[in-house]
Amino acid sequence: MKFIQKIYLLCLVQLVAFAPGSFAQSGLQRLDDRIMIDLQDHRTPEQTGVFLFLSRTNLYGDIGIPAGLLAGGIISNNKEMRQNSLYIASSTALSFGLTFLIKHIVKRPRPFVQNINIVPVYRAGSTSFPSGHTSSSFATATALSRAYPKWYVIAPAYLWAGSVSYSRMYLGVHYPTDVAAGAALGVGSAFILQSLKK
């Protein structure tokens, strides 16, 4: 429980640090900008294609993993698998809802809106903080890893979530701090709902 509290405390600190109007002059903002410009300066067409693909896998993983478990649980009449499906879907849904709420409170502009020197691969809508792709992928990966705590589940789950998260920075649509907060939010959502895990 203390771990969960620390994660949500981190999110609260991030919210206060990134309250509207406080981004522009902070040292953290300058670091965010430098990282984003460095990433864009090292893009290649091949890497860009890979990271666009990875970014698009987010929705398929977030929906496909619990749906697959639910289908498997129904077909095999496996109650544990069905409950794990509910746990993973609920964790992802909670992270999505919290992300939506925080985005509307903080209203941090996207990197390419905040700094004209940052050129995105494509122009995403909405606001930047926290990263929704990151929060939902980490919620899915964490819940899946807690439901099936085997290395061959945990390693690919977090490799996928980490790749999706990195892709958001590489593509120029999220700052590193957006991604860090999204990861913390996703992990925390899965831990909060762990009572749903069989």
Fold and architecture overview:
The protein has 198 residues and is an all-alpha fold. It has a single domain, classed as Orthogonal Bundle (Vanadium-containing Chloroperoxidase, domain 2), CATH 1.10.606.20. It is 74% helix and 0% strand. GO terms for molecular function: undecaprenyl-diphosphatase activity. InterPro entries: PAP2/HPO, PAP2/HPO_sf. It holds the Pfam family PAP2. Keywords: Cell membrane, Hydrolase, Membrane, Signal, Transmembrane, Transmembrane helix.
- Indicate how many domains the architecture comprises: 1
Low-confidence stretches: none
CATH topology: Vanadium-containing Chloroperoxidase, domain 2
Evaluate the radius of gyration.
Answer: 17 Å
Describe the biggest sheet?
A: none
Question: What shape does the CA trace take?
Answer: elongated
Assign a percent range to the helix content. over 70%
Helical element count?
8
How many angstroms does the end-to-end distance come to? 18 Å
Structural class: mainly alpha
How large a portion of the residues is in β-strands, by DSSP E?
under 5%
Count the strands? Answer: 0
Proper CATH architecture? Orthogonal Bundle
What would the average pLDDT be, to the nearest integer? 87
SSE order, one letter for each helix or strand:
HHHHHHHH
Q: Which CATH class applies here?
A: Mainly Alpha
Membrane topology: Multi-pass membrane protein
EC number: 3.6.1.27
Main location: membrane
Protein name: Undecaprenyl-diphosphatase
